[in-house]
Amino acid sequence: MKSFAIFKLLLLLGIPTCGVLFWLGSGILTEHLLSRPYGALDRLQVNATSPETAVTFIHAKIWQSQNSTTVIAWIENGTTYSLEFEFPFTEIEELEEAIAQRLSLTLFEVRRLVRYQIV
User: Fold this and answer.
1) Residues 5-46: pLDDT tens digits?
2) How far is the C-alpha of 34 from the C-alpha of 112, rounded, in Å?
3) How would you class 62 by CB atoms within 10 Å of its CB: exposed for 0-12, middle for 13-18, buried for 19 or more?
């Protein structure tokens, strides 16, 4: 009977203790992983007219009410300038393919540079 009481006490204290330790450990791990810097590249090479042309940033503003997207690409080749495009669709996959085709980039490069804003 005494061993059953000890077993019951260990069970009643052990399970909540394990739960609290798991909860604290997962919180610390999550905070550590989310506080790591994002490894985005600053510049990617464009297969355009000159080899030193680089796209530095792509901003896509998705207008859901108008079913269109405005894309601004910042390009640097000695001087910084921007190109603006408008596409008649809002699907991310279609946008990435259209941007890649328009700027002569790969899909991987577009995905690393583009930032979306849904309006």
Assistant:
1) 887 887 788 888 888 999 999 988 888 888 877 665 566 565
2) 18
3) buried
Q: What is the dihedral of CA 87, 91, 94, 98, to 10 degrees?
A: 30
How far is residue 31's CA from residue 107's CA, in Å, rounded to a whole number?
Answer: 30
Residue 25 one-letter amino acid: G
What pLDDT shows up at residue 39?
A: 64
Helix, strand, coil shares of the chain as percentages rounded to 5?
Answer: 45, 30, 30
Query: Can you give the pTM of this predicted structure?
Result: 0.55
Count CB-CB contacts under 10 A for residue 54.
18
**What tokens appear for 110 in the block?**
């577009």
Cα distance between residue 21 and residue 47, in whole Å: 52
DSSP 1: -
